[in-house]
């Protein structure tokens, strides 16, 4: 049984196939290829985009979706998540999509079930479908040619599952990555790093801005959001008329991660990423369920 826990669970041919299908779904109506299949979504952490995106993707393909309301589930009564998973599995779903605050939660659950587990984000570890939709957005913009293109990943990189998954995937497709963050947000890495965004702005083709993951900090790690924004917010003053595109997985902290004016700028791909997310998840669910 195959699971999608991290981007390395898919080889490059499979990813190319998924992205090709996703592009087709951006242009044409879906047929009900997953009719008769049932998927369970179980999200122990908040989500706006990822949860609805998976559910819309599954429904567009004709699958039925059961959303487990975690606040009302028996995990809230002390049942372990492995037991919850084994019980859900006994109802014979065709897939379980999970988000959890603990890194490794999906991999752990995979031991108790007989259907694919799709990771919708586990702690600071991985968020494979987000990285796939980011890859699609970048590939479509750069006409399939990512080799040698430079991207700055900016923000709370150390605590970001989105950064982790993107670093693996974008490197695989030949992009050069520069990590830009205050020193305490930078992971141990061999990649180029800097805390001075202005010093690299003229060399990059794309920016991926990330939210400060305050829920994963034990203590407040910077003076104030205003100070952070002064150094790392993507502003018109910073990017001027440069040929740079801006991505962000959401939720965006307005005027901390990205300035209002840039969110309205055609170079900002945030809503295109959301649209691409549905198409990518349709292709991913077909890949694992057919
Ligand atoms: C991210 C997540 O939850 O990992 N958002 C998303 O899935 N689109 C990023 C975040 O929470 O900042």
Q: Can you give keywords for this protein?
A:
four-stranded parallel beta sheet; globular; binds N-carbamoyl-L-aspartate; 290 residues; five-stranded parallel beta sheet; Rossmann fold; 10 helices; alpha/beta; 2 domains
Small molecules in complex: N-carbamoyl-L-aspartate
CATH class of the largest domain: Alpha Beta
What structural class do you assign from the helix and strand content? Answer: alpha/beta
The count of strands amounts to: 9
Stretches where pLDDT is under 50 for at least 5 consecutive residues are none
| Shape, principal axes of CA atoms | globular
Proportion of β residues?
A: 5-15%
Query: Compute the gyration radius: what is it?
Result: 19 Å
- Domain unit count: 2
Instruction: Tell me the name of the CATH homologous superfamily of the largest domain.
Output: Aspartate/ornithine carbamoyltransferase
């Amino acid at each position: 049984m195959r699971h999608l826990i991290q981007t390395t669970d898919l080889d490059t041919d499979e990813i190319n196939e998924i992205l090709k299908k996703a592009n087709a779904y951006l242009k044409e109506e879906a047929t009900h290829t997953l009719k008769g299949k049932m998927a369970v979504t179980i999200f122990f952490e908040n989500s706006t985009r990822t949860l609805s995106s998976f559910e819309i993707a599954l429904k567009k393909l004709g699958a039925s979706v059961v959303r487990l309301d975690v606040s009302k589930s028996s995990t809230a009564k002390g049942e372990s998540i492995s037991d919850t998973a084994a019980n859900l599995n006994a109802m014979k779903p065709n897939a379980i999509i999970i988000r959890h605050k603990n890194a490794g939660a999906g991999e752990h659950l995979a031991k108790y079930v007989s259907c694919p587990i799709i990771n919708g984000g586990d702690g600071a570890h991985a968020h494979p479908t987000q990285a796939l939709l980011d890859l699609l957005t970048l590939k479509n913009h750069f006409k399939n040619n990512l080799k040698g293109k430079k991207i700055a990943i900016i923000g709370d990189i150390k605590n970001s599952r989105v950064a982790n998954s993107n670093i693996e995937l974008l490197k695989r497709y030949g992009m050069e990555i520069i990590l830009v963050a205050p020193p305490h947000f930078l992971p141990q890495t061999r990649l180029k790093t800097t805390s001075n965004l202005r010093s690299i702005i003229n060399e990059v083709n794309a920016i991926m801005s990330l939210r400060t993951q305050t829920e994963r900090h034990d203590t407040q790690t910077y003076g104030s959001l205003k100070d952070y924004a002064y150094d790392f917010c993507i502003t018109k003053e910073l990017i001027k008329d440069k040929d740079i595109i801006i991505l962000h997985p959401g939720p965006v902290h307005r005027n901390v991660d990205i300035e209002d004016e840039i969110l309205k700028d055609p170079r900002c791909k945030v809503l295109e990423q959301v649209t691409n997310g549905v198409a990518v998840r349709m292709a991913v669910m077909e890949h694992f369920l057919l």
